[in-house]
Write a structure and sequence with these properties.
Keywords: Acyltransferase, Transferase. This is Acyltransferase family protein. By secondary structure, this protein is mainly α. The protein has helices spanning 13-32, 50-120, 147-169, 175-186, 191-205, 226-242, 248-254, 256-274, 287-314, 320-347, 354-377, 381-387. α1 packs across α9, α1 (13-32) runs parallel beside α10 and α2 (50-120) packs across α9 (287-314). It has one domain (5-124, 138-387).
Length: 405
């Protein structure tokens, strides 16, 4: 089902579904890491398979690019509806606030899992003094998986700065129509290639780029790497200007089969060119690296646009279950990583195929996170804080009144 122009002023349920899916797939993504050969994660399960590597690569290729694409679109929508001051306050409270509040407990949970894993694998000598604690500064500060909140904060700040500058330099509003025409010309079968060009250049010039991990995750240090700024920044910017031209969402939805075909072909090629699950960086800017960077960049944007178009086609109707998961996804993503790591340590020596243990870890973490969301978050001030609204508990029906005789 393609979204119609008459529906564009209403809630975009398909994009809600994509945003939720991008966050929820993070649980499966991180759970798969312990099953990838060779060891690329701190926890290494006894049962590992190349199938887990393909699963990780497929999810990682599009997930966060699609998320930032949707985040940019929703940012423009909120800024237009509420104004810059209310927008800034909301983003500080609901994006920067959770980063500040949840970073320490999340980090404590991760450290707990690391210590347990070290003991479980005999990496700690009984009675030996503990190693010195690491020292952190602005160049290596561990943002963990909450890095996306920091990136969003930076992008929102850029949006407000650009808006302030344009309000001074473009008092007659000439920039808006020009941007709209450029956006219209950008959206078409050529969109993945057009977006891929600057990202491919950034990846090619990055001496630390590991092709298997596509866009390098900016999870260490407060200044994101150039490839992440380019890759996710382009997605966020495209989403931002797309909200000005919501008619183009129809075009993306109709082109989703083409985007999906391009994503499948280029994604498989990118995996092969990366050499499979390898953590060896492509240090030198060679011709082979240029090819790998170009193919990977095309796959990243083609897959993100395919996901967007398919959700607009097939998930644009209202669904109470999807809406619930959309609300819950933010909380689930914030708290899931320590739970995933603890579960990985717990099952790493169990007998059984990797995919059974992967399903068990993912399902168990989902169950715990959903239960905590329902009992601790959704129906109180935490729900209002994270989701912008508190859903009251369902009240029992009032007893019927008996008329007095």
């Amino acid at each position: 089902m393609v979204i119609s122009q008459a529906e564009q002023g209403e809630r975009l349920h398909g994009l809600d579904a994509l945003r939720a899916g991008a966050l929820l797939l993070g649980v499966v993504l991180h759970a798969s890491l312990s099953f990838v050969p060779p060891q690329i994660w701190i926890v290494a399960d006894d049962s590992r398979s190349i199938g887990a590597a393909w699963l990780f690569f497929a999810i990682h290729l599009f997930r966060m690019t699609a998320f930032f694409l949707i985040a940019g679109l929703f940012a423009h929508r909120m800024l237009t509806r509420r104004g810059w001051l209310a927008f800034a306050k909301d983003r500080v409270v609901r994006i920067a606030g959770p980063l500040a509040v949840f970073w320490f407990p999340v980090m404590a949970g991760i450290v707990t899992a690391l210590v347990w894993n070290a003991h479980a694998n005999g990496l700690v000598t009984p009675g030996a003094p503990p190693p010195p604690p690491p020292t952190y500064d602005w160049t290596n500060f561990p943002l963990t998986h909450l890095w996306f909140l920091w990136m969003l904060t930076l992008f929102y700040a850029v949006v407000l700065i650009v808006r302030a500058v344009l309000s001074v330099l473009d008092r007659k509003g000439w920039a808006g129509p020009v941007v709209d025409r450029i956006t219209g010309a950008l959206i078409g079968p050529w969109t993945p290639a057009a977006l891929a060009a600057p990202l491919a250049l950034a990846l090619w010039l990055d001496p630390k780029w590991i092709a298997f991990f596509a866009v390098p995750t900016p999870d260490a240090g407060v200044i994101p790497n150039t490839s992440a700024l380019v890759g996710f920044g382009l997605a966020f910017g495209l989403g931002f200007v797309l909200d000005r031209r919501r008619d183009l969402l129809d075009r993306i939805a109709k082109a989703s089969p083409l985007f999906l075909s391009v994503a499948l072909v280029s994604g498989v090629a990118a995996y092969v060119l990366a050499g499979g699950p390898s953590i060896a960086p492509m240090a030198k800017p060679t011709a082979g690296k240029a090819l790998s960077a170009a193919v990977t960049a095309v796959a990243i944007y083609a897959s993100a646009l395919a996901a967007m178009g398919l959700c607009l086609r097939f998930a644009s109707g209202h669904s109470p279950a999807r809406r619930y998961l959309s609300d819950a996804s933010y909380w689930i993503y914030i708290v899931h990583l320590p739970l995933v790591m603890l579960a990985q340590v717990w099952v790493q020596d169990w007998a059984g195929p990797w995919w059974v243990k992967l399903i068990g870890v993912s399902a168990g973490v989902f169950a715990v996170c959903l239960a905590s969301y329902e009992l601790l978050i959704r129906h109180n001030f935490m729900g209002r804080w994270l989701n912008g609204r508190r859903v009251p508990w369902r009240n029992r029906p009032a007893p019927a009144l008996v008329p007095a005789e």
